[in-house]
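INTERNAL AUDIT FORM
Audit reference: QA-55
Scope: verify that the stored structure record matches its stored sequence.
Auditor: D.O.
Record contents follow.
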Amino acid sequence: MFGEDDVVRSHKGRLTLIGNIVIFFFLIIIARLWYLQIYSGKELYRYSIENTLRKETVKAARGMIFSRNNQLLIHNIPRFDAIIIPQYLKNKNASVDKLAQILKMSSKDIKKTLKKNRGQAKYRPVVIKKNISRKEVAIIETENFKMPGVLVHSFISREYSDKEIGGHLLGYISEISQHQLPKYRKRDKFNYKLGDFIGQAGLEEEMDLELRGDDGHEFVRVDARGRVRKHVSGSEIFSDVRNRKAVPGNNLRLTIDRDMQITAYNSLEGKVGSAVAIDVNTGEILTMVSRPSFDPTQFSRGLTTEYWKSLVDNTKNPLRDRTIQEHYSPGSTFKTFTALAALEEGIITKDQKVKCGPTFKLGRRRYHDWNRGGHGLTDVYKSLKRSVDVYFYKIATQLDIDVLARYARKFGFGSKTGIMLPRETSGLIPDREWKKKRYGEDWQLGETLSCSIGQSYILATPLQLAVAYAAIANKGKLYHPYLIREVFKNDGEVVKKFSPKMVSQVNVSEDSLNAIKKGLYQVVNERKGTAWWYRGIGIHMAGKTGTSQVKSMTSKELFSKCEEMPYKDRHHGIFVGYAPADDPKIAVSVVVEHGCHGSSAAAPVVRDVITNYMKKYHPQTYNKFAEEDKKALKEFWKKEKIRKDKIKKAKEKEKLEKEKEQAEKEAEKSEEA
């Protein structure tokens, strides 16, 4: 048996081993503590502090848009969204039920919204309801401690002062979609994220990078449940962590006159169409309205299903900008350019008279004039004044389509104007090469006849018509139409300035232009002119009416009453005019879809817009002309009364003579009996 010394000796080695193991682990703990407290202390302290901070994006205010007279067209107002951050959502059912009660929503709908966003990072906020009321904001903020993860997000909403008026021109903003992200990131070289609002139409889209500004960020201290406890400056904690202020977007000052916009829109009440007004000496767009329209504010607030459905289901297509995205057969408004081409090519002279009957026969086909009785001897002035179709049919037999196309293109037809708006269409001016390429067929002379009066393949936008007539008015200067005068910062510093840009000087003789302008003056200001009854007071307007057929018609349909046709078969009414006729300042084009007549449907809109312009910008000239027109009108009605009285007396005399003659015959019969 072992003694005590032997037992001690047998355990001594074990105690030494255990002691060494204890010391070893103690040293590891000391090393770990040294690593955590000394070597990595600062870094870990930073991590611990950062766990209590949340970096929040501060959205930059979007730039504002002003009219030429500094009236606010688009501005920003604060709005609020109810959001949930899934990362901090505790006791989900209770929080969702409480929020549903406050927002007057169903818990089921809120859970569906959360489920839809399950794929995104949990720290990203999920919008439950947009544009909540201030009362709802107050309740959520008060009850916040009962609903961890439920917050109110404030943002700046886009507000459009005149709602539907100018909706297409100004455009709208809405959230960028998933499929737009890669496309727009590549296009703009900008790191867009889901939830960002971008311009989706009109000037909002075209000038998006100028308007959007630069987002900032700020740090807030949050508790374990994600609730904001304090807004902090990064520099209070770490020198390299700082808040960054958002930089507002640049503002735009447009060439548009707000009062004229409102006048044009109101004048189109109950109609489907558009109006464009342009300064003939600069190319500045004064008015650009399409109707029916939409309210852009609805898009920026968060489009409701009901409102979107009301737009897409509307057969009149309110989302379509009819000023640049729709093109029409210009009808008789194109006769101006046919006549000019014929004068320049020596096919006619300005005083040469041509006999114009009710029809013109080419081969086996008869081309009808709008007037069943024809117009008799007609010169270039009367051809425009009375819009004589047969006159232009006869010209067309000698005017090659390629020559007509060349003159039309000089005035901007057949190509985009280059205005700073998205999705402009180019219209169409056909020629032999185009038809061969498009249809594989040769051009026919009968097609030239139809083109000479603005029908067949010819297509033009209302903007192109306004630009072309402005060039007629200003002696052949074709200006690039533009909408923006300047881009400027909030402090007033001008970043960009836009000025008139002449595209070309149309090479036509002054004598030919003057002949055309004289004819256009007679259209409005001489009795039997097609727009005589819609000339207005104090504006001395010149212009051309147009009736654009939307389908081929038989002679019977052609002379039937347009207003009695099915709506979709009625002609479009077009009028393009400028004023004052002797010193033009403004040109206006109006198209009214299925309006039947350019005179009754479109000319009154042009008249109203020009009247507003003259009263506002040239009041002395307007007042002078108004006095002259009132005197002339008074004299006209005086003569008209005398003329009607003479006709009435002549009819009464004729009636008396017939009665006397009848009485004499009856007396003779009585005597014979």
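Auditor finding: record pair retrieved intact. The chain has three domains: 55-184+211-254, 258-617, 634-673.
Action required: none
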